[in-house]
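Usage

Read records sequentially. Each one opens with the input sequence:
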Amino acid sequence: MARSELSSLAKHSGIYFLGSVLNRAASFILLPLYLNVLTPAEFGWLSVVLASMEILALVLGMGIGAAMVRLLVDCEGPRDTGRVIGSSLMFFVLPSLVVLALAWPGGQLAAGLVANAGIAPELFTLGFATAVFTVLFEIVLSVFRGLKLSWWYTAFSTGKSVLFLVLNSVFLLIFDWGVTGILLGTLTSVLVLCLFALVWFARRFPLSVTRADMRRLGALGLPIVPGAMLDAVFSALDKFYLAALVGPAAVGIYALAARLAHLIRIAIAAPFAQIWTVRRLEVETGDGNEADLPVFRNALLLFLMVFLLACLTLSLISPEVIWLIGRDEYARAADFVPFTLAGLFFYMLKWNFEIGIFAAEKTIWISAVSLTILVLAIPGYQWSVSTHGAYGAAATLVTLEALRAVLTATLAAWMSSLVRNFPFWETIVIFAAAAACYVAVRLHTGPFEPFVALGSRCLALAFYCGVLGVVFATKRDLYEDLRIALGKGRKT
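and closes with the structure output:
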């Protein structure tokens, strides 16, 4: 089994890696253009609008994507699949029409909340309309995930990136539309692909709508809407506090660090998550063999090793990355990259534990955790940002993400085998080693400057690779499973 399971996870993760990278590639290819065309304040405007879009998208999505994946796992033929897809689309239509109708007054309201940042209401209005079709596009990708059509996932992701790249280049370089052009390019690209996908679904599956499926979608998806909304508010809260208390330029610098950290998310975390979520749901819901759980534990540990190595590498070379792609005004963003990556690490742990809660169909607990974190975040950011600025926001983010992971793990331990089979001690060792390597280099060299003290940073990376090698060597079953997956060994 080790060979088939690890090979399957690696195969689909590789395809989803391609899809995830292509899905987001255009925004990263265009990032140097953004950083040279937009001032830090304008980049801050874009970041605040995107954060608002994320809040709306998670509320509007109503958990449809995750709930649909759960239902698609149970489908036994094209008719069942068409019923689930059709019901999911209908579940999305009515609230979307309401959002589109209220986009203009909503934009006026949002602009008033951050009046000191100077963001035009029209940017929020365009962002809200874009959020509607972005959610629909994510539902389309969820269909491909649920059906394990990873190549279709990649094809649509490629199409989105190509359209986004072309349209944004035209709108920025030829028409000089700035932030408006970026939002308009996003809207146009996802709208075109959503229309194509709806036609493709209608031709391949007999689409239909049933009350039973809509009730089940609601039962699975709606309980996580409050949690999704709270999570979105939480993820945007640091930027809103910075915009209100410090200014849009601080948001732009801080948001650049988050954008760089997002590279790790789309290149490593997201591809693994696409197939990992489906496979763990299959096992947790009884469609897998519990005797194979040690293999899943090893697969997760391998992922965490790769993930943390990439995080440490990016943290150490971020000054050079920013020097290459941006203006001098953005240089300070390198200080915040390690914080955002640490927050991403704890977010990934939280996401893994949530799979067990979702499989148990007790998603209301996810919302309870999110509410708890948001209640703590409001006074936490108020104090930290007002006293320590962006550094306070970054430290608060890491603290709250760590607490959320602990709370989610505690709840998931009651409901599934995920927590019992999680490699806790190995994870603690490799995370602590990564943090220690970064801190040691900073204490030794002081603030990083581009192309200065590269030797110390390379030595820290070499030491960390040695730590990973020791952990790997002490896990004999991990070594054997990997050999079998690569076809170089045989399970005894």
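Summary fields computed downstream for this record:
- Confidence is low (pLDDT under 50) at residues 485-492.
- The first helix runs from residue 2 to 29.
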